[in-house]
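Per your request, structure below.
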């Protein structure tokens, strides 16, 4: 089944913008995520057990998904955190922290003349806006850690994708349409930050960020589906690759990288060794719940207009390079991953504690009715073919 890079980036952009933009001064859709999960700490990076010199960190955003996990990881290491955002989303979160209010698109006065050791930018989508923030802060900070995305890679890039793979380019360099040019704009954001602070920027390119609090449900779909039990539609033949990164592991690595003043570019997606979709799904099983996998081949799913990633999250056919990303530099720098089963368990526990209204409908994946419809059609097709 063909999943074009454009389709992948469109789905990624929709999730990313909905999840984070409302907390950073870019007007997207979506609602607040849950509070940070402390169910299980992130695996320690090499040297992370040593008590570091306390730092002053500036977090641009800080109220959506990755932001709260960064706050918790930083405070656990003894660092002082200041939040900069519009003060409109979850304003009561972290009442003990210093909060500076403004808007990244032109209202940065609260940042002028202040000194921090490291900036953590989780909310940069438009190069002009990232450039403005980085240029203003350049004289006053040592390092700038920018959260980018593996969507920066060009459609024609070949597997395995590495930090040196070709980057996406927007047809119109002046465009600020994040949904249309998410990956290309993220690449330009990286360049804007580096131009403002040469040699002092670390651009981290995560893959699918998963775990408790995920407002997109792109990972949550699977443990929730297994918790329901019964016949589960599994896409392909199980041999496609699966790559995710737990939000808590990403936050821990970012804080560790800030402590060590790392610079450059690093992919951040796991696990450390290749994971097949069949093993990923097994890790999402819920103990004590009877669920049977039915593997449905990709051509049949295409006939049924069931798409990888958007309709069946995490699934990307192995013919596509953006499911095969190398993160060797980050691994060498200490990025560590918890087992997928632990992420699935914690995500399901978070989901079950969410309000009934939130749990009424998943924001990603097939509805139960649509899944049953496709499974019934697949069973009928096999019978017509004599069970083959």
């Amino acid at each position: 089944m063909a999943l074009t890079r454009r389709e992948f980036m469109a789905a990624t952009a929709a999730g990313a913008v909905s999840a984070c933009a409302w907390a950073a001064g870019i007007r997207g859709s979506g609602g607040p995520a849950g509070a940070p999960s402390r169910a299980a700490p992130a695996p320690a990076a090499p040297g992370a057990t040593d008590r570091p010199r306390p730092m002053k960190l500036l977090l641009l955003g800080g109220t959506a998904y990755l932001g709260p996990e960064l706050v918790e990881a930083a405070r656990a290491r003894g660092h002082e955190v200041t939040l900069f955002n519009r003060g409109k989303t979850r304003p009561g979160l972290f009442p003990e922290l210093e909060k500076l209010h403004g808007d990244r698109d032109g209202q940065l006065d609260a940042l002028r003349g202040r000194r921090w050791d490291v900036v953590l930018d989780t909310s940069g989508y438009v190069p002009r806006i990232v450039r403005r923030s980085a240029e203003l802060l350049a004289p006053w900070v040592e390092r700038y850690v920018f959260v980018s995305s593996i969507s920066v890679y060009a459609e024609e890039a070949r597997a395995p994708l590495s930090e040196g793979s070709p980057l996406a380019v927007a047809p119109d360099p002046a465009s600020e349409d994040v949904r249309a040019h998410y990956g290309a704009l993220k690449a330009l954001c990286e360049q804007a930050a580096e131009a403002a602070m040469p040699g002092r920027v670390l651009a981290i390119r995560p893959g699918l960020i998963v775990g408790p609090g995920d407002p997109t449900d792109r990972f949550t779909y699977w443990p929730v589906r297994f918790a329901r039990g019964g016949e589960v539609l599994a896409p392909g033949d199980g041999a496609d690759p699966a790559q995710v990164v737990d939000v808590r592991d990403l936050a821990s690595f970012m804080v560790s990288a800030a402590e060590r003043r790392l610079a450059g570019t690093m992919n951040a997606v796991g696990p450390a060794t290749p994971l097949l979709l069949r093993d990923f799904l097994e890790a999402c099983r819920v103990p004590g719940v009877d669920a049977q996998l039915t593997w449905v081949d990709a051509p049949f799913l295409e006939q049924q207009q069931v798409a990888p990633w958007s309709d069946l999250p995490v699934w990307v056919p192995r013919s596509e390079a953006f499911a095969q990303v190398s993160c060797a530099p980050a691994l060498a720098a200490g990025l560590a991953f918890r087992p997928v089963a632990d992420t699935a368990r914690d995500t399901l526990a978070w989901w079950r504690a969410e309000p009934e209204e939130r749990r009424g409908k998943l924001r990603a994946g097939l509805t139960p009715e649509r899944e049953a419809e496709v499974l019934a059609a697949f069973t009928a097709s096999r019978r017509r073919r004599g069970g083959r």
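Confidence is low (pLDDT under 50) at residues 20-34.

Regards,
D.
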